[in-house]
Amino acid sequence: MNTEFMQALKDLQREKGISSDSIIDALEKALAKSYEKNYNDHQNVKINIDPETGKLDIFAEKLIVDSVEEPIIEISLNDARKINANYQIGETVLQSVTPHDFGRIAAQTARNIVLQKIKDAERAIIFSEFEDREHEIITGIIQRMDRNYIYIELGKTEGMIPPSEQVSTESYRVGDRLKLYISEVKNTAKGAQVILSRNNPGLVVRLFELEIPEISDGVVEIFSIAREAGSRTKIAVFSKDENVDPVGACVGFKGTRVKAIVTELRGEKIDIIIWDKNIKTFIKNSLSPANIVDVIIDEENKSAVVVAQEEQLSLAIGKEGQNARLAAKLTGWKIDIKDEHEAKALNLKDKMIEKNIFDSRAEEIETVEDSIDD
Questions:
Q1: What pairs with residue 138 in β-bridges?
Q2: What confidence score (pLDDT) does residue 169 get?
Q3: What's the rounded Cα separation, in Å, for the pair 122 and 215?
Q4: Omega cis (within 30) before 162
Q5: Helix, strand, or coil here: 296?
Q6: Residue 296: closest CA among 319, 279, 275, 310
Q7: How many whole angstroms separate alpha carbon 335 and alpha carbon 306?
Q8: What pLDDT was estimated at residue 353?
Q9: How many CA atoms lie within 13 A of 222 on its CB side?
């Protein structure tokens, strides 16, 4: 150790934010182990490094006793007073045991400690950077592919798309540039592990925020989203400004805005739905592009029976039930779709009328009770 080395530690602290005290502390502990290993000495050693000059001293800590039985950890009072005449039995002595050739070991150990501290600091910085960006969208280039995992170049680190976060209908090649959703950032022994996704619904949300100024400005808001990645997405939006059409804002002039999103998602279909606080209307809208005749709701069980014309039934249900399935996810309600003949056979219309009468009477009773209370 020397003054140049200590100055280098101060430079590291200034440039990379690595505390010189933490390096010295780690170095003292590492040197204690190196001393024990290289000199086969199991004394209770203490390493001291002067933070200004870098001077290195190794001391063996020993207990002052009247009669020495364990020389490794004990020292007689006579020997102790050769170091300092004021020592008494029961006190501890630091006896210098610094080897003449320990400098080479110290230098190599110091180098390794500093390099490790630099790596740790860089990993911490990278983790902090990406931890703050969790759930955001990022653009990256496919760097390599290994065992179905895709690795994305992200500057100082690389992100990973595990098989579970890939879209089965998409093909990927090294060199492809992709927009990706940062689904999770983990701090591991090897540094920050950035988990990226192409199938997370959050990717579509972030793309809408990116492409549609009204959403990024907060005039139009996304209420909910339901996605089957690679196939179809339904997204419910509403406007805070009655003069702004939420669907029109999302579609853009001649469909340019939504087309840009569809292109990024490699042809995935997107249904833009108007959210309505009236759940019947919202469920009707969610089953677009089908035209719905009626919706009978059961609020207690959050379930609804949807009545559609016979020629609209298959459109409402969708291929392999996809349209109905996505509508249920979008609204958060269970949805059962029937045609008009089935609804009539089950007297669903009459049940709906009875329920409406009951609801209206309940509202009347509530109003009367409120007036009495007043």
A1: 180
A2: 93
A3: 36
A4: no
A5: strand
A6: 279
A7: 7
A8: 46
A9: 22
Kindly give the residue spans of alpha helices, DSSP state H, lying in the chain.
3-16, 20-39, 77-83, 102-131, 201-211, 213-216, 246-251, 256-264, 279-286, 310-317, 322-331, 340-345, 348-373
The whole-number pLDDT of residue 357 equals 38
Cβ atoms of 87 and 129 within 8 Å: the answer is: no
Report the distance separating Cα 51 and Cα 6, nearest Å. 7
Structural contact between residues 239 and 154, judged by C-beta atoms closer than 8 angstroms: no
SS (H, E, C) 115-169: HHHHHHHHHHHHHHHHHCCCCCEEEEEEEEEECCEEEEEECCEEEEECHHHCCCC
DSSP classification of residue 2: -
Helical axes 322-331 vs 310-317, angle rounded to 10°: 70
Residue with tokens 């290195």: 56
Token couple for 185:
């950032």
pLDDT of residue 272: 97
SS3 334: strand
Retrieve residue 133's tokens: 């960006």
What sign results for the dihedral spanned by CA atoms 96, 99, 103, 106? Answer: negative
Tell me the C-alpha to C-alpha distance, in Å, between residue 257 and each of 10, 69, 202, 245, 365.
53, 86, 18, 14, 50
What are phi and psi for residue 166, nearest 5 degrees?
-95, 160
pLDDT at residue 27, rounded to an integer: 80
CA distance 212 to 180: 18
Strands (E), 172-248: 177-188, 191-197, 220-228, 232-239
Return the pLDDT at 143.
95
Task: Profile the chain (374 residues) by mean pLDDT over runs of 10 residues.
Answer: 72 74 80 76 76 80 87 87 89 82 74 76 78 90 93 87 95 94 87 91 97 95 97 97 95 94 96 96 95 90 91 93 96 92 69 46 44 46
Radius of gyration of the chain (CA): 36
Alpha carbon distance 350, 363 (integer Å): 20
10 Å CB burial of residue 197 (0-12, 13-18, 19+) is: buried
